[in-house]
Amino acid sequence: MELTISQLHRGGNTNYIILRVARRWDTILPTSGKFISVDFLFTDRNGHAIHGYTNPKLHKNHSGVLLEGHVYKISTFQVKGLKGSHNAIPGTNTLLLYWSTTVTPVDVDVTPFPRHYFGFATIEQVLKSSSILRSHKRGNSWKDNDPRQKKAAHFQTANESNIISLLGMDPLEIGTRKYKIKAQITGLDVSSGWFYYGCPACGSSLQSMSTGFYCTTHSYQQPSVIAKLPIHVRDNTAEMKLIIFRPTAEELANISTADVPVLKDSTSIKIPNNAYDIIDKEFYFVLGLPKHSLQREELNFKINDYKSVEARDVSAKQNKGKAIDTTSAPLLLLGDTAEIAIQTPDKLPSAIQLPTKDDSPPKPQELSLDQSQLPQLETQRSTGKRTKPR
């Protein structure tokens, strides 16, 4: 369903909106030179405008689109409150383009979409805004905020869901809840590497300095090599991008960071080829929002645990087979009539056997019984009871 800017509400949104890019710029902190976001001023066909932005790590995903003056269909996005500072226009909402967002050019009449948008401030607003340019917002960094989280009860407590439902949720409503989905891995995104150098105390990404690796909380530290693997997944409702850290990532992709060296430039260290073996395989994933995503109110899900669908199906078949082996099934005893009449097996045969043409009962004249057994058989015929021979 197509939405307009005035119809947007906070939280994830799996519908689409058609917008024109009035302006596009990069936001770089002047004090540190850190590239923190790619920003946009969007307008819709009703003349309304909204500030949009995306993480610079996703810049390559939109390098060929979102050009100034052009109109695009934007699907699966998130509506958030205003940024801490440097909002392009007044209002209550901003538009966040994240990993699962799809941007498609559309060929429509651009006349209804304003090419420029101006919001005029009063003198009171100008006086109150004098401190805006003296503050800045800290940039993004890779961090696993839950390095010691236990996985034991994840599958028992997680709520069943699917991708389209997760993409439409409000991060604040999700909180610490976990969700379980069944999805197929469609690709790995190693454009930013498959590990990072983290602080052993808090897991934050370390800054490479001329004198060593620096943590903003714990000062200089000997870095830990922490696996970090963004993966693309798909189910029968939608697609999304997830991230998985530490041993869970190493187990899933069958990789190891044990022998990864600590280098100033680690771009030359490629992920082992066998990591791509998980592509096209199905898994049950337990997902949740890490702490920094909750703090930033962003729908960037982390994989807390996983199980292979194939392994689970094999296990179910094996258990089913064992159940059949232990049930009491009709038993066909083979042999001639005399052997059947006196057979009292202590243990049932291990397999059920079916009769063949050669297993037809012998004719009465072919029976050869001991004379002492005849009275006993006569008694069984007359009473209808069978007695155990001595």
From TrEMBL:
Gene3D superfamilies (alphabetical): Nucleic acid-binding proteins
Question: Which stretches are tagged as biased composition: Polar residues?
Answer: 368-382
**UniProt region (Disordered), positions on chain:** 346-390
Q: What is the name of the protein in this document?
A: Nucleic acid-binding protein
Q: State the organism of origin.
A: Corchorus olitorius
